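Structure tokens please, single chain.
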Amino acid sequence: MFRFKGVSVKIKDSVHDFISLTDNKELWEEVLNTSERNAVLIAGAAFDTQLERLLKKFLVQGASTSNKIAESSVFASKINLCYSLGLLSEDERHDLNLLRDIRNAFAHNIFDCDFNNSQVDAAIKNLVFPRKANPTPDKVDLRVCFNIGMIILDVFLKERLNVIQPIQELKSMKFVNK
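Here you go.
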């Protein structure tokens, strides 16, 4: 549990307990109603967790290496691995990488970092999904644009998690002596 501005938020430790960012009312309220930094860091952590769940569900079940790969990979590696395995579309990969860039800007700039920071502003305006939802993102508040992007990504990744099937372990080949 952590406290932010007097609000207590429980975050379950198990990746299996986390469904999606927008399905977790407390986390989603944090994204919507607290600082931009807090919104970005929570969204980044939530999508990192969703990608881990995708990998765990897709990779060979019961293989110790599958869990190690999913759990030990950093956010960028999870994005690239999920894309390479066909678990993410190009647009999803693009927007997740922009979220990673935005998250890194907030994490590494203690001062003078908000949605009006030139690097963050440009990244938010380059998110694919908000532009598809609203072709004139320059006329939309950056916070609204960010939230729209996170909602769309969240819906797509949650649905993907519901439909993917694990890959099957290859069985050893049997050789026949003639």
